[in-house]
Each structure stands twice: as structure tokens, then as C-alpha cells.
Amino acid sequence: MKIARSLLGSVFAILFATSCCWLPWLAVLLGGSVIGTSAFAIKLETFSVPLMAIGVGLLGYSGYLFWQKKNPKEHTHAIIFQSLITCPKCSFSKNETMPANACQFFYECENCKAVLKPLAGDCCVFCSYATVMCPPMQMGNKNCC
Q: Can you give the pTM of this predicted structure?
């Protein structure tokens, strides 16, 4: 959306900046007098330099936005390290701290001592049995482990 707005703004600014060249001709074509339009063109010419600078600046900014590379690993939200893990055998739940840069493949339930393993397709026990996915998955690493 920013790109479209900056492109539109730069197009309008450049059109206004160059209006001293094309607007008098348009006025004559629409039936205006040549003397009146030449005076109008002289008045418009005083604004062409600032408007051209604004137009070039907006055009440069839109180019910057368009060609700016997006970092796929860039985070827009904070990583959550606490998750409530629930044993599927006895329904016991406990808040646990997840490892920051790794997946946890096994987890022993404190209540029934069952050893939990990730379900098929999940990378770790937190992704299978907890309320929040593991930090690598939160960061967008689909093949994290």
C-alpha cells in the first residue's frame, strides 16, 4: 500500500511540476486565450522546482520500498517461551519453559511418568501437546529439527 501511495504521489507531483509546459496548451485547446494562458504558465513556473523535488523524492522512496528485500526470518512479534503442556494419557498440565533454539523430542509427564513423543508431522512435543508452538516454529522455521 505504501508503494502505491508513493507512486501516485510522485506521479501527481511530477504532473504538477511540469504543468507549466502542458497546461497552457490544454487551456488553448479548450478555448482559452493565448495571452491569459501564458501569464498563467509564468505563475506556474515558480512552483515547478519545489514540486519537481517532491516528485523525485517520492519516486525515489517508492523505488526504495519496491526494491527493499524482505527478510523472511524477520519477526513482527515476540517469541513466547512459556507453554502449557498437557499429557494426552492423564490430562495433567504444567507450564514449561521451551528451549530457545532447539526442539524437545521427549517429555516425561510428572503425574503418570509417561514419555511423550511428537505426533507424526510435528517437530517436537510442544508442537504436539502444548498451547504454544516451539520457538523455532514461531520464528517460521518449518523444517526446524
A: 0.47
